[in-house]
Amino acid sequence: MREAGYEPSVVNVGAWWGLSALSPWLHNDEHPLLQPDQPRYSVSTPESLEAFIHQRWPEAQRMELCVGPHGVQVARGWAALNARCEPQS
């Protein structure tokens, strides 16, 4: 995917970075740090995958279903719905 132009998201884990020393369930070895002295990882997220799909196949449609105060709302297009099931501008 990288050869096709995919760019993963950069996630800053901040203070959580040092917690791996306190718990056997937390570890830092699955994703390489972007820079050894900063707690930032390059990972695939729904947003980065969606951006890749939109860039690669612009004719594709995004569809989102949202249950809110006015019932079920269906949105088509690349703008996400907010917490009130309204399109974000």
Task: Report what the structure shows.
By secondary structure, this protein is α+β, with helices and mostly antiparallel strands. It contains 1 helix and 5 strands. Strands 1-3-2 form a 3-stranded antiparallel β-sheet, with no helix packed on it. It is flat, with a radius of gyration of 18 Å. The model has no long low-confidence stretch (mean pLDDT 80).
Keywords:
3-stranded antiparallel beta sheet, two-stranded antiparallel ribbon, alpha+beta, single chain, 89 residues, 1 helix
Write the SSE topology:
Blueprint: E1 9-12, E2 33-35, E3 38-43, H1 46-56, E4 63-68, E5 71-76
Cα distance spanning the termini: 29 Å
Based on Cα principal axes, name the global outline.
flat
The percent of residues in helical segments reads 10-25%
**Order of helices and strands, N to C?**
EEEHEE
Summarize the biggest pleated sheet: 3 strands, antiparallel
Question: Please, what is the average pLDDT?
Answer: 80
Q: Whole-number radius of gyration?
A: 18 Å
Low-confidence stretches: none
Widest sheet: strand ordering: 1-3-2
Strand content: 25-35%
Global structural class: alpha+beta
The total beta strand count reads 5
Number of helices: 1
Outline:
The protein has 89 residues and is α+β, with helices and mostly antiparallel strands. The chain has one helix at 46-56; strands spanning 9-12, 33-35, 38-43, 63-68, 71-76.
